[in-house]
Design goal:
Structural class: alpha+beta
Largest sheet: 6 strands, antiparallel
Shape: globular
Radius of gyration: 20 Å
Number of helices: 11
Order of helices and strands: HHEEHEHEEHEEEEEEHHHHHH
Number of strands: 11
Strand content: 15-25%
Length: 338
């Protein structure tokens, strides 16, 4: 699914939603437009879920740890503060603690008949935890469901019991293996994009500004960090973060991981059926406009230099190479940095 960029008013609405979701207890009910805002959030979550599903499943053979990919986006009621939960129930159903926010077209959940606003009652025979009442949860019930799924065999059928408009039903989802990583949209006015080795976070501004293919370039880069074990290798190297990340050996090692992630991202895009020249075009044509923000750092090369490097990497992929293509940079993932 390819979509045009999100209009600026949508991000403005999402920013308003963030303010509404943090109203103190006893505050007036949220603006009725919050329901429409949450629908805008659903739309962008669905975009990111489809991009992530495509990359995670196509590149699963390159990942050492895999999990069942269901082809859905979930929301938990305890992700929302108490004053906003009435609006969240209107938007996402929530007849239990966790609801299906969106399904990836022709993904496993969609093929099993799941639809948006289905509420989950049990997963693989285990009932869902009740969720946290009151304040917004630090670790939401959604994360607990995702962790439970990640522990299951990656391609074994999963029985889900659902409730929709008061009616219960069971469905059997036949997942496909995917790289073990969550992907999460974060409403953010900056250029957030990171991976902690288990979850990729992408700021909403990327989806506002760029097409699905261009967002895929960013997701592929962050997935590359996961596949190449960069978090673990940086810890093993004893690097310092914060301001010291910009200095000396720290900056050099961080840049090494960024260079390797750029390299691998080209193959990840190719494996997922994206045109691998998309990375070169993104860094050359689009990224210079924001090069003074996220990318202006001693830990990252400039956008034009990154464009040249990914172009060189693309040229190493043989014509009509079979998928999945395994580039040489994969061999570095067990090597100490530096």
């Amino acid at each position: 699914m390819v979509r045009t960029t999100m209009r600026p008013r949508v991000r403005a609405a999402l920013a308003t939603a963030i303010l509404s979701l943090t109203l103190p207890a006893g505050a007036p009910p949220p603006d009725p437009s919050l329901a429409a805002t949450l629908e805008a959030l659903r739309s962008e979550d669905a975009r990111l879920a489809a991009i992530g599903y495509r990359l995670l499943t196509a590149d699963a053979p390159l990942c050492r740890e895999v999990q069942p990919e269901m082809g859905w986006a979930l929301q938990a009621l305890d992700q929302f503060d108490a004053p906003s939960r009435a609006a969240a129930k209107i938007a996402f159903g929530f007849e239990s603690a966790v609801a299906v926010e969106a399904v990836v077209p022709d993904g496993p959940a969609a093929r099993a008949g799941l639809v948006a606003n289905d509420s989950l009652l049990s997963v693989a025979g285990a009932p869902l935890p009740p969720g946290q009442a009151g304040a917004k949860a630090v670790v939401s019930t959604r994360n607990a469901v995702e962790a439970r799924l990640a522990a299951l065999p990656p391609a074994a059928p999963v029985t889900i019991v659902l409730r929709h408009d008061g009616r219960d039903r069971a469905a059997t989802v036949r997942p496909v293996p995917g790289c073990r990583s969550g992907i999460e949209l974060v409403v953010d006015d900056g250029w957030l994009a990171d991976s902690d080795g288990t979850r990729i976070r992408v700021g909403s501004r990327w989806l506002e500004r760029f097409s699905d293919t261009e967002v895929a370039v960013i997701v592929a880069h962050e997935l590359s960090h996961t596949i190449l074990n960069h978090q673990q290798r940086l810890r093993a190297a004893g690097v310092s973060r914060g301001l010291l990340a910009e200095v000396g050996r720290n900056a050099r090692l961080f840049r090494e991981t960024e260079d390797d992630a750029d390299q691998l991202s080209v193959s990840l895009l190719y494996n997922a059926g994206y045109d691998p020249t998309a990375a070169e075009r993104f860094w050359h044509d689009k990224a210079p406009a924001i090069d003074g923000g996220l990318f202006h750092s001693r830990t990252h090369r400039g956008a034009l230099e990154r464009a040249a490097r990914v172009a060189a990497e693309r040229a190493t992929i043989p014509a009509n190479a079979s998928r999945p293509y395994r580039p040489p940079v994969l061999a570095t993932r067990d090597q100490p940095l530096g």
